[in-house]
Write a structure and sequence with these properties.
Zincin-like, alpha/beta, globular, 13 helices, 5-stranded mixed beta sheet, 5 strands, 3 domains
Length: about 300
């Protein structure tokens, strides 16, 4: 900082007719309680005038912004926390219903996503309310898709590397719909643990209940897709990159495509995991019953798998 001032100030004369330097000004200003970084500014102003001072501070500020995004209150020009133009902002926070949109790295993109979701929101009010408190953030998805819903943290993650802002908006809307239907998924999973899904699957001629379970989860997602399609149409966004389900047809076509892509595998795995957990819990109950001298509960061990 001092070298910048020296190059700009040169050997200008003070009012007393002698050469002045920033360091000389610093001594007197420090005695008066002026911080050292401001002493350089005052010394330069006395020796070089306002125009040169402004030029030096502009150079200093530009150099600082290239190297550091941290707080600049220690620099000579002080801290500027004014609102930057949209194209220059690095962070954004907005809310639609109970959904909070936050980005600390790409404000313009998140602002665009927020604006479009707000446009669609009146056409999916019931689902938006059912979604509850949800956070939308930018990040890297685990499955390599433009977006994903993380139930454990109630977060929708959008991957800006994989899609445009408008496409990510469509993804955000779809994941909000998925969040709104979690109670349906929870009820289906509870039915798995109790053997109800296996019983229904066999009644309908399915030899593999895990595939039947996956189909039922895909049905919920397809219904969310149809809600998405209708909301986009009502918001005047049909045919745009945000309209992810604009060309979607019936459920059978959708389901067959999901099977072919391998999308159903994770749901089949989920079924088997839930069954294993239910069986383990039943085994613990039987062991506890034996340890207390009573007969085991046979009903839990004969539930359909």
């Amino acid at each position: 900082m001092r070298s910048q001032f020296g190059r700009t100030g040169g050997a200008h004369k003070t009012e007393r007719g002698r050469a002045a330097s920033p360091s000389a000004g610093r001594v007197s200003d420090q005695r008066s309680g002026v911080p050292p970084h401001m002493a350089d500014v005052l010394a330069l102003q006395r020796s070089a005038g306002n125009a040169a001072t402004a030029q030096a501070l502009t150079v200093q500020r530009a150099g600082a912004s290239r190297h550091d995004d941290s707080d600049d209150s220690g620099l000579a020009y002080g801290s500027d926390h004014g609102t930057p133009p949209p194209e220059q902002e690095t962070s954004f926070t907005g809310v639609v219903g109970g959904v909070q949109f936050t980005s600390k790295t790409n404000g313009p993109l998140m602002r665009r996503v927020h604006a479009l979701v707000r446009r669609v929101a009146p056409h999916m009010g019931q689902q938006l309310a059912a979604a509850g408190s949800v956070s939308v953030q930018l990040g890297r998805t685990r499955g390599g898709t433009p977006g994903e819903w993380r139930q454990d943290s109630r977060t929708i993650v959008l991957d800006q590397r994989l899609a445009s802002a408008d496409h990510l908006t469509g993804t955000a809307v779809f994941e909000i719909l998925n969040a709104s239907s979690r109670h349906r998924i929870a009820a289906l999973e509870a039915e798995v643990a109790g053997g109800g899904v296996a019983a229904r699957a066999r009644a309908k001629g399915w030899d593999h209940p895990e595939k039947f379970f996956a189909m039922e989860v895909e049905r919920i997602e397809w219904e969310n897709g149809m809600t998405h399609k209708a909301a986009m149409a009502s918001a005047g966004l049909s045919g745009t990159p945000a309209d992810l389900f604009g060309q979607e047809g019936g459920f059978v076509e959708f389901y067959n495509r999901q099977v072919a892509s391998g999308h159903t595998h994770s749901y089949e795995f989920r079924y088997n995991l839930l069954r294993a957990q239910a069986d383990a819990a039943a085994a613990r109950e039987q062991e506890a019953a034996w340890s207390h001298g009573g007969p085991p509960d046979e009903s839990s061990s004969h539930r359909p798998r």
